[in-house]
Design brief:
Helix content: 25-40%
Number of helices: 13
Structural class: alpha/beta
Radius of gyration: 23 Å
Shape: globular
Oligomer: single chain
Length: 462
């Protein structure tokens, strides 16, 4: 092990799941010496959820081979998704070709792809602390591997370590990137209930149905006789399970018997104001990136990784050590591609969902927020949202309080989106921009606040 105690590479990637493997593979394809370190064993790499859904289009978009029938990673596919109101009415269709995949075999495919590009990976190698040079610049990391200390020096460190963000959160306050910890208030706790359907022919699940008011969904599983009943909520797994059990009592789910549970969490908060610093880029869930409406992260982290790899190629040309300034375009390009929209949606969520079951049912009936779409993506809804809300207010279907929350959420969401689209073009403008962003976020609602109020009511009703 003596020769393994110190390594020198171009790119050190901390975390080897979907994000780290993809970014590491892209950088290796450029001819960089890439080392990916993950604390898991090879057999346990990415073993959080068994089944995940990824839109088919993403594989071609990100240059990855699409799993097909007969592959270990492939389960099935579907083209239509349904959303229903809180009272199980007014289904809204959306169309997108989606693959039902097994996560661990998919990660094995990504691992093989990254290795083919020239990356190297070390398993059971846990990050301990960052390594700085005499000028205070990040130049690598110290790891523990089978009881031995391993130091890896690199021109660029990529933190793809997931929610713990082990590199980012270990940096000094003044290093140029926020080192906050993603707390339980700022995570979306997901529980998947794998079930056997008692009437599989009658209740076969071929598409995903979501009850957005409760953050609960019914999705395909491995075979026609099974299904996945999922729930996501802020605060804790305990609260998420309470929400799920309350929903089950409504009788909207088909009769079933529980097989087993899987649990995991995703970020549910704003991303750091900057994703880069000297010698550092933060990727995927380590950067709190996920789709606010669904909690999904894989393809959205691939997009950020693709952007980052293109910028890093230029920033590391001719052996250069990438600076915050040379990596800075990652921020603006990411916000232009998806970050600004995700920020808008995150800001709007609490105002858009904090209403009664009856109000949510009216919103579905009238196509407010939740639209029904044709296969070509066009909406079938007619009339303006404002007009429908005013009619709802006048007829008592929507309360004044809910109307105000919706309008305020829409307004602050639009302002936050425009602010993120106007991200500063150089690090010198970040402090002023971040102060303005902080003031905008202070006006946005929080899903955690909604969850805490609901939990308090649950406890009061006992």
């Amino acid at each position: 092990m003596a020769e393994m105690q110190k390594r020198e590479v171009d790119v050190l990637v901390v975390g080897g799941a979907t994000t780290g493997l993809y970014f590491g593979g892209l950088m290796a394809r450029q001819g960089k010496r890439v080392l990916i370190c993950d604390s898991s064993s090879e057999a346990e790499l990415g073993a959080v959820f068994d089944i995940i859904h990824i839109a088919q289009e993403h594989f071609e978009r990100f240059g990855l081979e699409e799993p097909v029938a007969g592959d270990e990673a492939y389960v099935s596919s579907f083209n239509r998704s349904i959303q229903k109101s809180a009272l199980n009415n007014w289904p809204k269709n959306s169309y997108r070709s989606t693959l039902v995949l097994r996560r661990v075999p998919l990660i094995k495919r990504l691992l093989a792809w990254a290795l083919e590009q020239g990356a190297e990976i070390l398993f059971e190698t846990s990050f301990e602390q960052p390594v700085f040079n005499g000028s205070g610049r990040l130049v690598g990391g110290q790891f523990s591997q089978s009881g031995e200390a391993l130091t890896v020096e690199a021109r660029l460190v990529a933190d793809a370590s997931g929610i713990p963000a082990v590199v980012r959160t270990a940096l000094p306050d003044d290093y140029g990137i926020e080192n906050f910890v993603c707390t339980p208030r700022h995570q979306f706790y997901v529980i998947l209930h794998y079930v056997d359907l008692k009437n599989p022919e009658q209740d076969r699940v071929d598409v995903t149905t979501t009850w957005t008011h409760y953050k609960i969904w019914l999705a395909p599983q491995h075979g026609s006789s099974g299904a996945i009943m999922g729930v996501g909520a802020n605060l804790s797994f305990d609260y998420a399970e309470r929400v799920y059990q309350r929903f089950l009592a409504k009788g909207y789910m088909p009769p079933h018997a529980l097989q087993h549970l899987e649990q995991g969490s995703t970020p549910y908060c704003r991303i750091p104001y900057s994703l880069v610093a000297d010698g550092l880029v933060v990727l995927g869930t380590a950067a709190c990136i996920s789709n606010p409406w669904s909690g999904e992260g894989v393809p959205y982290s691939w997009l950020q990784g693709q952007i980052a790899a293109e910028v890093c190629e230029a920033a590391m040309a001719d052996g250069a050590a990438p600076t915050q300034a040379s990596l800075w375009p990652i921020n603006g390009l990411y916000h232009e591609a998806q970050g600004a929209l995700f920020a808008k949606n995150l800001a709007m969520l609490s105002g858009a969902t904090d209403c009664t079951e009856q109000e949510n049912d009216y919103e579905y009936k009238k196509g407010i927020i939740y639209e029904n779409r044709n296969e070509d993506g066009s909406s079938t809804e007619r009339g303006s949202m404002i007009g429908k809300l005013l009619v709802g207010l006048l007829t008592g279907k929507i309360s004044l309080s809910t109307l105000r929350k919706l309008m305020d959420a829409s307004s602050i969401g639009e302002k936050i989106e425009q602010h993120y689209l106007a991200f500063p073009t150089a690090p010198e403008g970040l402090a002023e921009w971040a102060a303005q962003a902080e003031a905008l976020w202070a006006k946005a609602g929080s899903m955690a606040d909604v969850a805490e109020a609901d939990l308090a009511q649950m406890q009061a009703d006992k």
